[in-house]
Design brief:
- The structure is a single chain.
- This protein has about 525 residues and is mostly helical.
- The chain folds into 2 domains: about 290 residues, no CATH class; about 210 residues, no CATH class.
- The chain is about 85% helix and about 0% strand.
- Helix 3 packs antiparallel against helix 10, helix 5 runs antiparallel to helix 7 and helix 12 packs antiparallel against helix 18.
- The longest helix is centred in the last third of the chain and has 53 residues.
- The protein starts with a helix and ends with a helix.
Length: about 525
């Protein structure tokens, strides 16, 4: 590959990551910052329904059977020259049929079970039961439509049209989180109005994704023969898809079992507070997803093209970026949990109750974001055997533990299990996977790309606690200032020890100097 081509590929990857981060930061910020308004205008119990809706969307991905990541990977392989246009269109049509069938089965199942869920599972005390049943029915349609959009998102992501997708995500998030207040202002702050609005947004979302993805598919006129109607093109992908299906199912079970169990134990209002704390902690996963969305199709293409060194370079550089961003964010949330929740909601009691849950889930999610990297490597190589084995262990051991601790110790018990699970996975299983796939990679990856980068932030936390520099008595403005200053301190400390970040800063400074000198020369 020529130097110019390498430069263009690197630049496009950086642009994709920046665009993803910009949109994810917006989506995360607007989704989280708006939550106190939901509780204020709808009530805590109605917000509990919103938290249940979020959990249902995640659980619906149990029906995915590995199809969404499969279409993304095959799209990247098509653009990398590893698949013909005809084979790609045949595969896409077969997957489209499967997606429609599963959407109907999943959405229909939720609709039929709506009364059972509302009356026998949810602990409703104030809301009218008929309104809760109707809300659950609308949830069934909405989550089916949103999941169906995964097919078209896979095409767009695999085509690396992430700048457009990032802007579209901002648009949809604005409709979902902000425009809903206009609807409720006109028709009432009730769960029915809220979920009808979400249904309309889901329809707009899937329609736009469908139209854009169709333009990215190879035209029918370029094909050597008719596409046809057959599931044969999917058969060679079944092993890969079913492996992802199992691991995705385990992922959903691991991440949602605690929420599912607690939704049937806690009163709906208290469940709303629990989901609020967990949602704040989930921002760590959300801010890490732009990098994974950008590097997974690129790594799959590089592997298809036989460019192993470039693949490993992207793998390690991306790990450093994740360590800086996610590491500093997780430590900030854990250190400033109570101050952050109070500054956000203005509710002292809520902050005190939710802070321990936020701390545990924040650190656990930090570990989780790092442990995802061996999966990206296996995904690029098209062999998820070790990921499959690791997830079987999760199903056999960790899920029952989460259920036990969530049932007897509530959200805090589930948080301790979540933290211990992800820490153990990082220290044990990722080492084994790297040993099998890239024998000389794990130690420099763990030490240079993770531990060294996170160490400054950990040292600052120890310093804060030793010298008792934590904010004890404060108002909302002081709490906000404390959280921001602490987060910036953690981020800068981590960024300065990252070779990748230092190189980026050096590159930007050099470009600025060149532009200044060029401007002075022209003057």
């Amino acid at each position: 590959m020529s130097t110019a081509s390498k430069t263009n590929n690197t630049l496009s990857l950086k642009i994709n990551i920046i665009a993803n981060y910009a949109s994810q930061l917006y989506v995360t910020a607007v989704g989280i910052l708006i939550l106190p308004l939901y509780i204020k205008y709808m009530g805590a119990e109605a917000y509990g329904l919103v938290g249940f809706f979020t959990m249902l969307q995640a659980c619906f991905f149990l029906l995915d059977i590995g199809l969404t990541p499969t279409i993304g990977r095959e799209t990247a392989r098509y653009h990398g020259g590893a698949m013909s246009a005809l084979a790609y269109r045949q595969m896409f049509r077969a997957l489209s049929i499967i997606f429609v069938i599963i959407a109907v089965i999943g959405g229909g199942g939720l609709w039929l079970l709506s009364e059972v869920v509302a009356t026998s599972w949810l602990n409703v005390t104030e809301l009218p039961m008929g309104e809760v049943v109707l809300a659950v029915q609308i949830m069934g349609i909405s989550v089916a439509l949103r999941w169906m959009g995964g097919l078209y998102r896979g095409v767009i992501t695999g085509s690396e049209r992430l700048v457009w997708l990032s802007g579209f995500n901002v648009f949809i998030a604005t409709l979902r989180f902000i425009a809903v207040f206009a609807s409720m202002g006109l028709y009432g702050f009730s769960p029915f109005v809220f979920f009808i609005h979400q249904l309309v947004v889901a329809l707009v979302e899937i329609l736009c994704l469908f139209m854009v993805s169709r333009r990215l598919l190879p035209s029918r006129t370029s094909l050597s023969q008719a596409i046809g109607w057959s599931f044969s093109p999917v058969r060679p992908l079944l092993k890969f898809a079913l492996t992802i299906a199992f691991t995705s199912s385990v992922w959903v079970l691991v991440t949602q079992t605690d929420k599912f169990v607690l939704s049937g134990i806690l009163p709906l209002a208290e469940y709303g507070y629990f989901t609020l704390a967990v949602l704040v902690a989930s921002s760590i996963i959300i801010i890490s997803s732009p990098i994974s969305s950008a590097i997974m199709p690129r790594m799959a293409r590089l592997h298809a093209e036989g460019k192993h060194e470039e693949l490993i370079q992207i793998y390690r550089s991306s790990t450093q970026l994740i360590s800086v961003v996610v590491g500093s964010t997780a430590i900030t949330l854990a250190t400033c949990a109570e101050q952050l929740l109070f500054a956000w909601t203005g509710d002292t009691q809520l902050a005190e109750k939710a802070a321990p849950i936020l701390q545990l889930y924040a650190i656990g999610n930090g570990f989780l974001a790092i442990t995802a990297f061996p999966y990206y490597l296996q995904y690029a190589k098209g062999n998820l055997r070790y990921h499959l084995i690791g997830n079987i262990v999760m199903v056999g051991v960790l899920i029952p533990v989460i259920m036990y601790f969530a049932y007897y110790f509530g959200g805090v018990g589930a948080g301790y299990v979540w933290l211990g699970m992800n820490c153990s996975y990082l220290l044990i299983w990722t080492a084994y996977v790297h040993h099998k796939l890239e024998p000389r990679l794990h130690f420099p990856w763990l030490v240079n790309d993770i531990a060294v980068i996170v160490l400054p932030a950990v040292a600052i936390v120890i310093f804060i606690f030793i010298f008792e520099l934590r904010l004890v008595s404060y108002g909302r403005i002081e709490a906000i200032a404390y959280c921001i200053s602490t987060g910036v301190l953690f981020f800068v400390g981590s960024a300065l020890v990252s070779q990748k970040v230092r190189n980026m800063l050096s590159f930007w400074i050099k470009n600025i100097r060149v532009k200044i000198q060029s401007g002075n020369t022209r003057a």
